[in-house]
Amino acid sequence: MERPEPELIRQSWQAVSRSPLEHGTVLFTRLFDLEPDLLPLFQYNCGQYSSPEDCLSSPEFLDHIRKVMLVIDAAVTNVEDLSSLEEYLAGLGRKHRAVGVKLSSFSTVGEALLYMLEKCLGPAFTPAVRAAWRQLYGAVVQAMSRGWDGE
Q1: DSSP states of 60-81 as a string?
Q2: What is the CATH topology of the domain spanning 5-146?
Q3: What global pTM score does this model have?
């Protein structure tokens, strides 16, 4: 797998990382639009909510959004040495598998990530930036997928 273009990744992430919660909420709103079946996986805090909007604004879910954005931030920081995150990402994969997330759902998460970046960056979200993020996200999911090994 080709390495993503570090400079494009870092520059584009700067705009997002200024308000991670706001952009993370855009990501998850899009995710639930694309794959509503994922919402019940968050029953630990969404069972009592009647809509994705209510769930997204719950303190527990905001905490999850923060964590997801921190993982992306770590991938951006280590874009030139993603292998240093491999064990951590495999563990993250195992945690997601344990709560019933299917590996295939991560392709939808990838679409939601690209959507969020496009919304945040506007015209600066060029085809080259999109390609760099696809590569980076692909590498992250590849590492996380080890958490599903041996199923």
Answers
A1: HHHHHHHHHHHHHHHHHHTTT-
A2: Globin-like (1.10.490)
A3: 0.89
